[in-house]
Amino acid sequence: MRKIKEPENIPLPDYRGDLTYSCIGCGQSYPIEEFFYTCPSCGSLLKVVDRAFDTLKKTSGSRWGEIFDLRRLSKAPALSGIFLFHELVLPLVPPGDVIYLGEGQTPMVRANEGLSRWFGSSFYVKNDGQNPSASFKDRGMASAVSYLNHITRKRDLKGVLGICASTGDTSAAAALYLSYLPRDRVRSVVLLPKGKVTPAQLSQPLASGATVIELPGVFDDCMRVVEELAENYDVFLLNSKNPLRINGQKSYSYEVAQQLGWDTSDLAVVLPIGNAGNITAVMEGFLDLVRLGIIEKLPLVVGVQSHHADPVYRWRENGEYRSVPVSPSVAQAAMIGNPVSFPKVRELVREHYEDRFFVIRVTEQEIMEGMLTANRNGHIVCTQGGESIAGARKALGQGILDPSHTIVVDSTSHQLKFSEFQRMYFEGTFPEEYGVTPEKHLVNAPVAMEGGADAVAAFLKLKGREEGRRRKEEEIVGG
Fold first, then answer.
1. How would you list the strands of the sheet with 300-306, edge to edge?
2. Which of 282, 281, 288, 287 is nearest to 246 (CA)?
């Protein structure tokens, strides 16, 4: 293979940090080389802590911004995706063990005039549906599976089982990234709630060769099984309960800040809550940038939940957290009544985001209208993206956001994964429990007709060129 010449003066990562797992409950630390997901002492969630992080502060924030900007010129795969921010993601993974499948550096697209007018302000859509498996989950899988690649090489492990529960996107991303590793070293299993995953999403882990197990119930039921397996068996968990995944998803924040020229002074980020792993990562990511002096202050963070699964909204309203039963949602990743990463959200809000964190509740109707309206105006957002847009629009109406903010809305996945919901909307076939009624101006359908160009021209009311010339001549003469 021909070696690609790297541009000169690209700052390459040589920092390896001093990473450990740290319990958010009792504070106990554990070796990063082990497969831990909860604290063996108290059962609380773990986070990845770099005990050498302060050494990074010896470099100024402005210089770190320059380093990350220069790396965007790199042709090296290890610096082309989320590991462009190597020191902040997983510095223990050497560049040679990084798995890069094209994730990260997703576009931030400004809403056009029509969509901005409907929304009530200008805003951006950060389109993470343009990741390899068509969702934001690739960010976390790139870090977790790169770690797994590194550890299995280092410890000469064979037959490691990578496993996750999913509503669709996690399974697609996990199966894709695990399939890149040698089959004698890792194999892939995903657990899905039977009948709760779109056909497009089901096809992805199957195509990547994963063993797909369908269980009755909803995501929470699958997650309980996976948690029991991770607790009692030697498996590598790939849900957001694994803090190594959270570290990769922090790259979303780094990219947003970079795409705004490192100016986040008036930034507001809006994203769906789901299992709460991504919103945890986004808050942690911006906190990293503040700690290094790359940005001056934390943005506003607005989480959005469907009224069919809203435990975090209720907690923010009354201060008490309880799991809730869920109803069917078009935003399938929102159908989670007890988000696994909520304890991390609560800790981040109490310590850093108390006056900068809001939660908005939206209806299924609003989610569908948010998705379809955005896509009518040049976007490819999913139902979760529609949830974000609907929430941001409502937050604007409530005065939480205002037009002076730079509003960035997260679309977590690709429109095509949720085309079945679009079809049901257009055909008016949504089951009653969704509470979705099609609005005529958003409905679209193909037009079947017979005949050739003349019939099509007549249907479209086109004017022939000769008729157009004649009318133009008559106008000139008449004028």
1. 108-110, 124-127, 406-411, 267-272, 300-306, 357-362
2. 281
Using alpha carbons only, how large is the chain's radius of gyration in Å?
24
Residue type, 21: Y
* pLDDT higher than 80, residue 5: no
Dump pLDDT digits (tens) for 389-429.
Answer: 999 999 999 999 999 999 999 999 999 988 999 999 999 99
Enter the tokens of residue 213.
């197990």
Band the pLDDT of 226: cuts 50, 70, 90: very high
Distance (Å, whole) CA 54 – CA 49: 11
Cα–Cα distance measured from residue 236 to residue 163, given in angstroms and rounded to the nearest whole number: 6
d(CA 241, CA 276) in angstroms, rounded, equals 10
| DSSP code, position 45 | B
**The tokens of 448 are what?**
């079947």
Output the DSSP codes for 414-440: BGGGGHHHHHHHHHT---GGG-----G
Predicted local confidence at residue 468, as pLDDT: 60
Q: What's the token pair of residue 407?
A: 């509003």
Cα 470 from Cα 479, distance rounded (Å): 14
Element (H, E) at 170: helix 169-179
CA-to-CA distance for 109 and 107, rounded, in angstroms? 6
User: 130-181, pLDDT tens digit by residue?
Assistant: 999 999 999 999 999 999 999 999 999 999 999 999 878 899 999 999 999 9
Element (H, E) at 344: helix 342-348
Identify the DSSP state of 305: E
Give the mean pLDDT of 232-240: 91
The residue among 244, 246, 278, 247 whose CA lies nearest residue 89 is 247
> Using an 8 Å Cβ cutoff, are 271 and 410 in contact?
yes
Task: Report the C-alpha dihedral over residues 116, 306, 357, 354, rounded to 10 degrees.
Answer: 160
How far, in Å, CA of 312 to CA of 339, rounded? 8
Q: Are strands 46-50 and 211-215 parallel, antiparallel or unpaired?
A: unpaired
Q: Is the pTM for the entire model greater than 0.85?
A: yes
Phi/psi at 321 (nearest 5 deg)? -105, 130
Give the residue among 469, 471, 278 at the shortest CA–CA distance from 387. 278
d(CA 62, CA 265): 15
Give 427-434's long-range contacts (Cβ < 8 A, gap of 24+): 431/328, 433/327, 433/328, 434/328, 434/329, 434/330, 434/364
